[in-house]
Amino acid sequence: MGPLTESMKRLCGEIVVLRGERLNFVRDLGQDVAAMRAEFRRAHSEMARRSKAECQGFVEALGHEVASLRAGFRRAHKTMARMSRAERRADLNHLKKTVSWMRREFAGDLAGAHRAWCGPSPAELRAKAEAERRAKAEVELRAKEEAERRHREAEAQAKAEAARGPAPSKPKEEAARPGKKKG
Q1: Full-model pTM
Q2: Residues 128 and 120: beta-carbon distance below 8 Å
Q3: SS3 175
Q4: How far is 32 from 23, CA to CA, in rounded Å?
Q5: Strands (DSSP E) found in the chain
Q6: pLDDT tens digit sequence for 121-167
Q7: Which domain holds residue 151?
Q8: Residue 183 has pLDDT above 70, yes or no
Q9: Would you say residue 181 has pLDDT above 70?
């Protein structure tokens, strides 16, 4: 055998060995890729499970936080509504009092203007006359009572003097008159 044959044999052997190694490499590469893909799928499913749990926890926490915020808003709204209602009532009462006072003042002013323009009304004239009549009757009643009281006192005094007896009489002296001499 010549060197060419030997070189060809060696070259064929190397090709066969290289082909086997290449097939082994491709098979190992396929197994490695399959193992890697399986690991990726397992890691992906684990990451998805953890991410889902975290998302659910986040959504739950967010739901609780939103619920507590809404409850706080409701409490604040109720408090604000109560205070606002109380302020409106106080303002309304103040406004009612102010308007009532203004209406009374205006009504009095209007009545005064009416009296000044038209004079007193018949009812006012009757009321005034009735008040004067009552005052006059009361004065007369008091005067009558006073006269009766004086009359009773005078009678009581006269009875007391009559019970004591007659009073001693005094001699009358002539009163001195200016311009006349005694003599």
Answers
A1: 0.38
A2: yes
A3: coil
A4: 14
A5: none
A6: 788 889 999 999 999 999 999 999 999 999 999 999 988 888 886 65
A7: 120-161
A8: no
A9: no
- How far, in Å, CA of 183 to CA of 181, rounded? 6
Identity of the residue numbered 122: P
Which residue in the block uniquely carries the two structure tokens 């109380």? Answer: 86
Q: What total of structural domains would you count in the chain?
A: 1
Residue 178 lies in a domain: no
Does 139 map to a domain?
yes
Residue 148 covered by a domain: yes
Express as a percent the part of the chain with pLDDT over 70.
89
Segment (H or E) for 176: none
- The 3 state secondary structure assigned to 97-143 is HHHHHHHHHHHHHHHHHHHHHHCCCHHHHHHHHHHHHHHHHHHHHHH
Q: With a cut of 60, say whether residue 77 has pLDDT above it.
A: yes
Cα gap 29→22, rounded to integer Å:
10
Query: Which residues have a Cβ under 8 Å from the Cβ of 50 and sit 6 or more positions away?
Result: none
To the nearest whole number, what is the mean pLDDT of the chain? 89
